[in-house]
């Protein structure tokens, strides 16, 4: 689905673009997609000379669930001394939190196409466990234990 944009970015920027075809939910539950992206990124970083790429100029990018995967892979690789450091990460409307679907941004944009609030929750559930049978609980916020909600409240608060 992204080949056209990858070709455009490569052509216009004079860059090498590697697009990872990771396994998708619901057939492949978490952490399959993450493992695929991590493996592909590690392989690429180990072999940059083979691709004619300066290891100091590698940038990772993703949109939606791909943005989530880029973030997770970047965090995993941040402490590695055996691989070149990533120069940057580009996150395009990344799915970064599924703890609270009632934050102001979800409320304000709940009816805005392309990713309605219910769709975001649905896809998060598919990604994590392969089905959406707990949709109501997730939208209400009752899927998070009170102690965890309290622990993360300073980062996930409407204030």
Automatic annotation (TrEMBL):
It holds the Pfam family Abhydrolase_3. It comes from the Eukaryota. GO terms for molecular function: hydrolase activity. Keywords: Hydrolase. Residues 1-132 form the Alpha/beta hydrolase fold-3 domain. SUPFAM superfamilies: alpha/beta-Hydrolases (SSF53474). This is ADCL4 protein. It comes from Calyptomena viridis (Lesser green broadbill). The lineage of its organism: Eukaryota, Metazoa, Chordata, Craniata, Vertebrata.
